[in-house]
Amino acid sequence: MSAPAAKVSKKELNSNHDGADETSEKEQQEAIEHIDEVQNEIDRLNEQASEEILKVEQKYNKLRQPFFQKRSELIAKIPNFWVTTFVNHPQVSALLGEEDEEALHYLTRVEVTEFEDIKSGYRIDFYFDENPYFENKVLSKEFHLNESGDPSSKSTEIKWKSGKDLTKRSSQTQNKASRKRQHEEPESFFTWFTDHSDAGADELGEVIKDDIWPNPLQYYLVGTALSRALHPQQLWEKVNFITELMLQMCL
Amino acid sequence: MSAPAAKVSKKELNSNHDGADETSEKEQQEAIEHIDEVQNEIDRLNEQASEEILKVEQKYNKLRQPFFQKRSELIAKIPNFWVTTFVNHPQVSALLGEEDEEALHYLTRVEVTEFEDIKSGYRIDFYFDENPYFENKVLSKEFHLNESGDPSSKSTEIKWKSGKDLTKRSSQTQNKASRKRQHEEPESFFTWFTDHSDAGADELGEVIKDDIWPNPLQYYLVGTALSRALHPQQLWEKVNFITELMLQMCL
Fold first, then answer.
1. Which residue of B has its CA nearest to A58?
2. A chain contacts of residue B27, beta-carbon cutoff 8 Å
3. Which residue of B67, B116, B169, B173 lies most exposed, with the fewest beta carbons within 10 A?
4. Residue B123 in 3-state DSSP?
5. Contact list, B48 vs chain A (CB under 8 Å)
6. Where are the domains of chain A?
7. What would the CATH number be for the domain defined by B65-250?
8. What's phi and psi for A3, nearest 5 deg?
């Protein structure tokens, strides 16, 4: 909410208001003191509102838990659910190299946990099957806000198998500092685990928490659903139209 | 909340999972249908949570109203409260030319109103005394989200007195389109009223609504409070120190 009001003490008002005299200055000083009192009431209401909203969020976080649990169990029955979901998501897919995608075929479970008081942060856990890339069974990244509101993040150190470190494959020649300055995307999905430069607004973390986690099925199904929404005849027409368009652009 | 789940229909899974046969494909299809059911439960809970949070916000908006009203009456007793507040606010002050500041000396009352359902938008009203710049008694700008979530804004047309249009004073030669492209600040506080290019994330609107309106007194007092926090002797030492520093820089 709002910052605490500055302490009000007697204030000499160098007003250029016509007819300002001792009396009106005293009145102004009193008005400021009253504003401060009213402001304290407003701040108190703001705090109460925040607490009530937090309680609502906590209540529903608990109510959602068994459904998330059930959903995870069902997702585990579908091979390649998560890699398909990530590939179908425009922002995540932009981070996926060919080998990232290979490695994500071993991703069996994703869990997003918001910490009890919600405002203090969240953690994302990625569960992997035995795979040729790294030893870890779980990779986690978590985001914290400390009491003064400063963000930080930490994550599992990835134990790469020999010669399999995907963060060292591409763009090795590119200077990391210059990449940061230009706000470019990390060059591998897995560099995200070692990048703690923007914990307060971690793009991938927030996409997973706020966009994918609330409804991953929509991204898993997106390709299928789109093509099925069209009648075969319509689909055929669309393909012809696009082919025509591409030909025109190339000529 | 999350987008509606894509309709689930039979899906041919071209799984490359070892041992995938007719039975496991049927199982996968069933799993997807169950995920969709679970997802509907999660979506239902999300909607309930949103509604409860909205009710809390509406309740506190009502509870705060009489205090905002009282605060406005008290502020009206203090000459130049709003212009001082705006000048002391770093982001707003960056928008203020010398003549904007002159005109804002006639600003007596600012009101921020969030619309009943909150999510749909807000309005800021600026009440002015009779002044040499424009005829209007009130200048308003309001921000709307329509039902599909698209933002728009509209505002009072300012009836400038002859030769007093502050939006036509500076940077006249600068091409407006190029200014837009470079995302520079408008050249006068008052151009903000005619700029509807970024209604979804109007910087000044949000600063006033979310930063100044919750506690304007802290900005009004900021200069005074800082100087009063120091004992006169400390203040004297600080002035000497800064004078010394400035002398060194100039020599």
1. B49
2. 77
3. B173
4. strand
5. 60
6. 65-250
7. 3.30.1120.90
8. -70, 155
